[in-house]
Amino acid sequence: MTNQNVLKNDLPITKFDDDKLDRQKFALQMRRIIKNYKKKDCLTLGIMGSWGSGKTSLINMVFDQNKDNILTEKDFKVMRFNPWNFSKQQDLYYQFFEQLKELLISNENDEGKRNHAKNIINEYSIKNIDYTSFVDISAMNDPLSTTSEYYLPFLMLLESWRAMTTPPNWEYSDFIKALEKRNIDLSNTEKETLKFVFGEIQTPPDNVERTIESFNKKSEKEQISMREEKLRALRKQTYETYFGPSTDFTCQLINTRSIIRLIHSLDRKLTETEIKEFTAPITDRRLLKVIDQTNFSYKPQSLQGH
User: Fold this and answer.
1) Distance between CA atoms of residues 306 and 304, nearest Å
2) What is the model's pTM?
3) Do 122 and 151 sit in the same domain of this protein?
4) How many domains is the chain partitioned into structurally?
């Protein structure tokens, strides 16, 4: 007797027609149940059985794309998620929503639909993952790192969700008030040009591009300040809606990381006035120190190598 005859693997079958245990009728029934379900409420089906009883084989039979075209990829998206791959509950939640998001956008060419799917999944995942255990996390010696196994995925989830969120829009009147608050005086020509840009008037004034270019040069830092003020307010509102006080360490850490990314995106050091304004929501001394050190030591890309 050869080893080939003695040793048998216990891998599940992958095709409907490979079944030798008379499970095809049951598999077909499940396929029809899934295909014909039209209600808005979700349908939950469970396959119960001991280890090695053929649960995975049955699932493979149900979703075999080569059998009778009942469940086609055109009509259904199938996600195979194995919870045994993750030892921590928070990792399981995070990876589940990430895998679901990837499935929904993988074959979608419409960018608008892709972004819409990302926004829905990101928002739903944040609402439904229980992060109450973060209350027990003490402040770390190094604020930009952590010994917690689930803290970094949490931050990444928050930041990826925020990156997908539509930036706050400006109305003309609010934009002007914000500029005046920062002592930017506008000429009549600039005001008329901004009215056209914001859709207040339909007829473009003369030299629109030149006026905008000049306006941007004289108010660059003020416009950055205005944008960051709105983004801070949005972060604060979002965090307080889903998690708790925006004064807690996690929210301060998110603001700190945002400021550091801003320094790199602007490719310059922030001014003393900007630092004072942008760090207003941050009270943790270690985080403030990290920001100061990053800003002080930052070397613009254009100067590196000189």
Assistant:
1) 6
2) 0.51
3) yes
4) 3
